[in-house]
Amino acid sequence: MRPFCFLFLLLFFTSCSENSDEIRIVIWHQKPPGEREVLETAVKKYMAEHPNVKVIVLYKETEELRSAYIISAVAGKGPDIVYGPSDQIGVFEVLEIIKPLEEIFDTGFINQFDPRGLLWYKGHLYQIGDQIGNHLFLLYNKKLVKKPPEKMSELIRIGKELTKDIDGDGKIDQYGLVWNYTEPFFFIPFLTGFGGWVMDSTGNPTLNTEATVRALQFVRDLKDKYKIVPRECDYNTADALFKEGRAGMLINGPWSVGGYKKAGVDFGIAKIPRVDETGLWPAPMVAIKGYSINVNVSERKLPYVIDLFKYLVSPEVQLEHTKALGTIPTHKKALESEIVKADPLIQASISQMEVGKPMPVVPELRAIWDAMRPYYQAVLGGTISPEEAAEKMQQLAIKKIEEMNE
Fold first, then answer.
1. Are residues 152 and 182 in the same domain?
2. Residue among 336, 192, 399 at smallest CA distance from 278
């Protein structure tokens, strides 16, 4: 054998031997930019302390993550750890593509977490959150709003005062309120404020109600009657207007806080104002965002995945998210930290969360979102009445659920 051939084979087999000792763990997640940076920093630190472990972190949009994970996991593949909101768990459970975590972690470990940060479903623990909430609240620019409104009538009054053409060119430059009102998720606080909800205890849609009609009419009135919100406003538009100081109030969630701090906005957080007609506080959907383990993880790799999982939900890593983004941690030790207790923004977020309603994790919720969206947007566009929209939402939701269960 020629010397260079022997050397090549020696290097090849040495490389294979070295690579065989390396444990590769893949995480798929849908964390927004601020959270993404904290996760990547934490993973780099972990790998520095565990040189035999290579952690690959891949970001995917929420819907892409859900569908891609289903396809890959059903085929026996996919990431080792998947991170996302709790509403994806119902689908994952039906398809049996995530591991029951109570069979992996002992009671002592599980009890370290606030019960609201643990997602039990059909008797099994399928997700441990690194943050509680994922809910909507009211943010207000302190330069424009000295005291946040406590009632919707106050919000409308303040909104009218703030919505104005500042430079006299005939176009509105500043708005009283902005939010992503095109998405049904952002409609939920208004629906609950008028006493409604999306489904009953058995997963049947409850959209064709007086509460839905009144909530739809109210949201449309904010735009067309009171004219305190832009004629068109998606998430990016609302976000930009608030960052530029051209909106007095904004409805958004904890994932957005870091961006407003970075933009230098002097803001506060408050509960979304009480609905005058019902006396109810708007109840946004409250969920956890957290980690689950792929059912396809091998027995050989599982101990390494468990160790990384424990690190990712540790109080240290959770508090890094809290410091950067104002998220509410799930670990009891982190919740007792002064980082949480002394932060007025976090405390205000907790106050809103406590009047919220748990997000359903049943698969039917996906069908309900899809049924709500076109008719909700049609109401805002003025092409359909709230009454007709509520009826059509209900009909389409029932149809989609039946199709899903065929």
1. yes
2. 192
Q: Cα 329 to the chain's mean position, in Å?
A: 14
Q: Could you tell me the residue range of the domain that residue 128 belongs to?
A: 3-134+287-353
Say how many domains are in the chain: 2
Q: What is the pLDDT of residue 10?
A: 37
Q: Cα–Cα distance between 138 and 148 in angstroms, integer?
A: 9
- pLDDT at site 247: 98
Instruction: Name which of 136, 246, 139, 132 is nearest 184 in CA terms.
Output: 136
330 close to 288: Cβ distance less than 8 angstroms: yes
Count of Cβ atoms closer than 10 Å to residue 74 Cβ: 14
Cβ 202 vs Cβ 362: under 8 Å: no
The answer to whether residue 358 is domain-embedded is no
Q: Within 10 A of 160 (CB to CB), how many other CB atoms are there? A: 13
Distance, in Å, from the CA atom of 54 to the CA atom of 264, rounded to the nearest integer, reads 37
Question: Is 317 among the domain residues?
Answer: yes
pTM for the predicted model, two decimal places: 0.83
Model confidence band, residue 34 (pLDDT cutoffs 50, 70, 90): confident
Q: What is the pLDDT of residue 3?
A: 42
Q: Report pLDDT digits (tens) over 108-150.
A: 999 999 999 999 999 999 999 999 988 999 999 999 999 999 9
- The CATH number for 264's domain is 3.40.190.10
Name which of 219, 181, 215 is nearest 198 in CA terms: 215
Residue 2: is its pLDDT beyond 90? no
Instruction: Report the half-sphere exposure of 248 (CA within 13 A, side-chain side).
Output: 22
C-alpha gyration radius of the chain = 24
211 and 91 part of one domain: no
Q: Are residues 32 and 130 in the same domain?
A: yes
Average confidence score pLDDT of the chain: 93
- Residues 251 and 375 grouped into a single domain: yes
> How many angstroms separate the CA atoms of 69 and 152, rounded?
41
